[in-house]
Amino acid sequence: MRVVIAEDSVLLRAGLTKLLETSGFEVAAAAGDAEELLAAVREHRPDAAIVDVRMPPGFTDEGVRAALVMRREAPDVAVLLLSQYVEERYAADLLSSSTSGIGYLLKDRVADVSAFLDALRRVIAGGTALDPEVVAQLLLRRGSDPLGRLTPREREVLSLMAEGRSNAGIAAALVVSESAVAKHINNIFAKLDLPHAEGDHRRVLAVLRFLDGGT
């Protein structure tokens, strides 16, 4: 799998490059700003781009804006955003354009190498990988209605679904049976008036669309 990295910190960029290459990924390019990122994606058409939210010259939302351009020009390239802090509106910007092949993690999560690599592989496969803290902010933003219909346990299940976990993963996290998880998920979709969708992945995407205010 081929990856492009966009990170202005030389040390973090080098660390990510070494980590990925020793884990079986090919780093096609490592960019220091948004313009270099877009040029690298256009040239190499990687499987994914790992993008810092804030990059030169303004250190505001250059990475997000570049990611949105990428989604228009190369929708098959997965995007994994990295941020120093929880910036929920940036996740919402990406989710409003697409919920396939999208990830948004805090940089601290990179230290958990296994979880970070799992998240990257998940977005490359077309899934989602949202940081638990970002999910919490999304849930809070939509917390009044209709999420208020959900029980506390159903909100826990919804949060884990939005992180990209499978039914088995949710069951393990909550120490319940998979049949109990399936029942909670059915209740969630009924209460949120979401249409039936087959497969865990499609259910996750539907939840994320709802959290972003879509249909």
From TrEMBL:
> Where are residues bearing 4-aspartylphosphate located in the sequence?
52
Q: Which UniProt keywords apply?
A: DNA-binding, Phosphoprotein, Transcription, Transcription regulation
Q: Which domain of life is it from?
A: Bacteria
The residue ranges of the HTH luxR-type domain are: 143-214
Residue limits of the Response regulatory domain? Answer: 2-122
Is the keyword Disulfide bond in the record?
no
Q: CDD domains annotated for this entry? A: LuxR_C_like, REC_NarL-like
Q: Which InterPro entries match?
A: CheY-like_superfamily, NreC/VraR/RcsB-like_REC, Sig_transdc_resp-reg_C-effctor, Sig_transdc_resp-reg_receiver, Tscrpt_reg_LuxR_C, WalR-like
User: Is Nucleotide-binding among this UniProt entry's keywords?
Assistant: no
Q: Sorted alphabetically, which PANTHER family does this protein's record hold?
A: TRANSCRIPTIONAL REGULATORY PROTEIN NARL-RELATED (PTHR43214:SF24), TWO-COMPONENT RESPONSE REGULATOR (PTHR43214)
- What is the designated name of this protein? Response regulator transcription factor
